[in-house]
Amino acid sequence: MGFKKKSLDEDECLRLDNQICFPLYAVSKEVVRKYKPFLDEIGLTYTQYIVMMVIWEGKKLSVQELGERLYLDSGTLTPLLVKLEKKGLVERSRSHKDERVVEIAATEKGTGLKVQAREIPKKISGCLGISVKDVITLKKILDKSLKNITES
Amino acid sequence: MGFKKKSLDEDECLRLDNQICFPLYAVSKEVVRKYKPFLDEIGLTYTQYIVMMVIWEGKKLSVQELGERLYLDSGTLTPLLVKLEKKGLVERSRSHKDERVVEIAATEKGTGLKVQAREIPKKISGCLGISVKDVITLKKILDKSLKNITES
DNA sequence: TTAAATTAAATTGCATACAATCTAATTATT
DNA sequence: AATAATTAGATTGTATGCAATTTAATTTAA
Question: Which residue of B12, B55, B136, B138 is the best one to mutate when testing the A interface, meaning the one whose CB has the most A CBs within 10 A?
Answer without folding.
Answer: B138
